[in-house]
Specification:
Blueprint: E1 2-6, H1 34-40, H2 42-66, E2 70-78, H3 96-110, H4 113-120, H5 123-126, H6 129-134, E3 136-137, E4 141-142, H7 144-154, E5 156-159, E6 165-172, H8 177-233, H9 241-279, H10 286-293, H11 299-319, H12 325-424, E7 431-435, H13 448-473, H14 511-514, H15 519-538, E8 543-545, H16 554-567, E9 572-576, H17 584-588, H18 597-601, H19 607-610, E10 612-613, E11 619-621
Parallel strand pairs: 9-11
Antiparallel strand pairs: 1-8, 1-9, 2-6, 2-7, 3-4, 5-6, 10-11
Helix pairs in contact: 2-13, 4-7, 4-8, 8-12, 9-12, 10-12, 11-12, 15-16
Length: 622
Amino acid sequence: MTTVSPSRPPVPQPPSRARHPAPVPSSSARTVDPFRLLRRHLVLLVATGFTGVFLGVVVFILFKQFLPMYSGETLFEIRAGLDEARDIAGKDIARDDIVLRLATTETMLLTSREVLEAAVKQPDVQTTAWFKDHYYDKQMGPLIDAAVDELEEDVMRRLVPGTSLFGIRWSSKVASDVPIILTSIGRAYMDKRKRLDEEIYMENIEVFKNELAQTKRELDDLGQLIETFIREKGITTLDDPRSNQLSLAMQDLVERIAETNSAMTLTLSMYSQVEAKLEGTIEPSDDDRRLAQDHPAIRPHEMAVLQTKTSLRSLRAQYHDPDQYSIRKQDMVLRSMELEYEAKLQEIMRANLQAQFKALADQIERYAHMSTELEKEYEEKSTLLRALAADMSHYLELEEQRRHLGATRDADLELIKEVRLMRLRADASRVRLAQAARTPREVSFPKIELVVPATAVLVLGLVVGLIFLREFTDQRVKSASDLVVVPDARILGVIPELAEDPCRSDSAELVVSRTPQSVLAESYRQTSALIDKAMSRLGHQTLLVVGGLPGSGTTTVITNIAAASAAGGRSVVVVDANFRRPGLARAMGVDGEEPGLGDTLMGEFDVDKVIQSNEYGIDVVS
């Protein structure tokens, strides 16, 4: 035990509280730093590595001597096949995902139980050492199912990345058995693939034949329907003259209807003008007046006016006085004659307008009747033309259906011909043999580059596992995390290992005084500050430092805490109470042969006589 006693007057201390013994931390709460743990056992791990390599060489020699294995493989190629029977060569498959999907499907077929069973039943396979040694019973004969079961487990599927190749791989103790087994499986697979292709060809041909028969039946039915339609509708040619005649007649009707409507419009306009003249809304035109003047009934009035005007001119030439009675009388007679003339003229004009109004009304009625008849005739011919056009359209539709069915029939015939031709071509299959199996000349197992590293890794892993198992089952306190589960425990500081300090101090004792800039010294100063603060708060002057095991670092801790306290201005005396393995005097740099604590306890020396001081001003009792 080592104590640190600050040199202060004694003060009364509070009664100590009873403490229950702290439970030992359980291994389940332990946390382990794997890098630190492995670094601590680095020498053991290096030795284990070399031992694993040596054992790997021994294992390789034993496997090669007693358990050699020979491997071989058969590869097939996925091809795109033929788009048409007359293609010179098949096309490449552009997409890798399609190649992978097809190759995966084919490998499943290649290693299916049906293919493996067909391969095992071949005579060549039953003569191999593999089959005779394991799957032939003198009483029961060949054990086909058991052999197939083993092949299902041992035959490995193989996809070659970046290519269109796939295949299988198989290993045996006898090299000559490998090509026989793989060739038999490949032959059984190709037979299976050929049967599947044949079934597909036959199914396709059967489907195409059924479609062809259905198309021919539809063609026959459609031909009879067209013949019946032609007879019923009287269709002779695609360019029926009846349609031309109807079109010409309808064109003539359209022209006549337009002329009638135009004439009727003009007549309606004249009718409106005459009606307005009769109502007095507008004045009669000059033509109306001239027409009235040409009427025989107006002639006498016109002659009377002319005669009166002649007499009036004679009187004016005779008397030269406008106020002469004869002249005024003759002038009055002229005005009377002119009024009668004008009245008669108006009467005749109105009679003419009434006659014209009636004639226009009759003409309008005739035009309306004529327009109605023309519209009716046009509608009848239009209906007849639409019916004829519908018949022709239906006929053309039937002909188009017949042409389409004929093209479908020809396509079906050509397709059947293509399928039969493709069936005869050797390169139509999606799969071909790319590499046949050969007798292996070298063993595939064991491989020294695999066995030696694997054995070394296994041994090294076993040792590492034991190291971690021992670390997890060790109940000793080794880190701050181990104290977390202890009730009432308070962690004042964590001191790193000397090797983890970047300053690389020579010794951990008195590192606070010798290497004050190091991480280790700073950690001790922080921890010492917390200890001094707690001691001052509780009024303590003495610190007891106890180590649970030899070499636990008690001397290192007390020297640095004492150095940190002394650097803070305290008077410190360090007492070494470890009578079994004293080492404090050496660590503090004083003479360990001088009288110390044991001499004082025996009464040989006073306390003042056994105190020594080192170069850093710390008092030491050895």
